Fold F-box domain-containing protein.
Amino acid sequence: MDENFSDENPCCILCGLQLYVRDWFDLDNPGLTCPTLWMSEFRAEGDDWMNPKLSGVGLRATRRNLAPIDPNSRYDDPNINQETVIQITLFKTIFGNDSVAPYFTTAKSFPGFGFHEACWTLLKSMYQPTDIDIRLLNNIYRSFPIQGGLINWGHDYGGRMHYSRDFNSLIPGEVPMLNRLYIHELLSEEEDLNQVFYFYSPSEIPGLTQILHESFASTSSICREQREAFEIPLHIQDPFTRLPVEILEMILMELPSKDVLHLKLASCVFSNILLPQSFFASRFNLGFEFRQILEAQKYHDKIHNWKILYVKVKELSKTHNFRNRMQIWWLILQLQDLLTESCQTPLEGPLSQSFFEPDVPDGGLICSFVSGDLRGPEQLFDDGCRALWTRHTNLPREISSLFVSFTDMDNSYICGLRFEQDNGDDICLGYIRRQSELPLATGHLTFAGDGQNVHGIKLALDKKAFRAISLLMDKERNSNWLGTPDGVPKIRLASLGSPLTALKAGFDVG
Ligand SMILES: [Zn+2]
């Protein structure tokens, strides 16, 4: 295997399915009739690791991942300038001089993370009219190990892929590897490709265009419906009779459709309200069941009968293309949460020298050091963790409280520490998530001098990071553990007679 590739059959970072090489895919499946070109059309984002850019749409071929450098171009543009087509090294995880290839060099090759153009279109639609933060996306993806051509960022891609080990058989601290499933492994014995919804393009939903045109109806019947909706029987003993119809409709608009049904069963007032057009239109907004019908956003101003659109789209929901779009949309929502969280949570603490910040002083600290399965920048990153950025902080002699922040991933990991001082000022290290941080210790904590009562730190860790923390107090006494220490190795970072004066830690994402 070329060391530049983590795998020769890379998978889409969004949906988990392979970025198929077009030629062998055709040969391998001569009877294939379901549309599959979408699986070979890809984009990538990458660069010199610090300034990633989005490529144009390329087509995967044997050992060649060629795409135009212009994000607005496609491989099949009739006037494409071949001089602007570049070779992309997909899923390269080894940093170092060889990897930091300038984007516009004569070699015309750069490392990047790949995804189907169809999946990218769905992700992009979620952020419109704003743009996706390509740099943040790149930072997130290079923070997770690549296993079998897949990025393992904490889920099994909606069951499309599978873990190497049953969760119940893991030894303490073990994190299961993710395995790619090839086409034949995704099919049961009686299935062929045409029966599996994974392989149907999420871009095109047959029948949707016709339904959209039917929804471009006149408004006369709609007005009549809405007048009927105002005729609520006021004699009914139902507390909702006190509310005007406008408020009742606003309540309906905020509720998931399933809860609207429950409300109609529980309340006479709501059971008599005909759902207005605005309600059906709201079902196509973010947070509701048909937000992934991007076409409804595109033709929003033309659609007059949202009820017809809603009812008929529901009828389409069992089609293969629709189901695939639904599942990919769900995966994209997980990524959106991660993007939002990463965007809102800066890395705090004074800079310290690291691979990506080599010109920063290292702080001159002599530290005891502990980590999970830490992979260096020039090592293959197929398991464990990476420390892309380093931060350090000097500790005050005394603090009033220590708060710990945890990630929201499947296994919750420590991501930041906040030392609250008597004067109210904070000393922060890492990603501080105040909305969910927990106090490890409150009351006077003294790290040095007379009255020293904190002598070290205890940590529980697995291959990826620290799962729990406690303080080593006087007379070998520990504070309570914070996090999930059970069943994973623990280590003590004691100051061995010297006071604990500083902390230094490595972080990913950035
Ligand atoms: Zn995909």
Summary: The two ends are 30 Å apart (CA to CA). Residues 347-507 form a domain with the Vitelline Membrane Outer Layer Protein I, subunit A fold (CATH 2.100.10). Residues 12, 14-15, 17, 115-116, 119 surround zinc ion (CB under 6 Å).
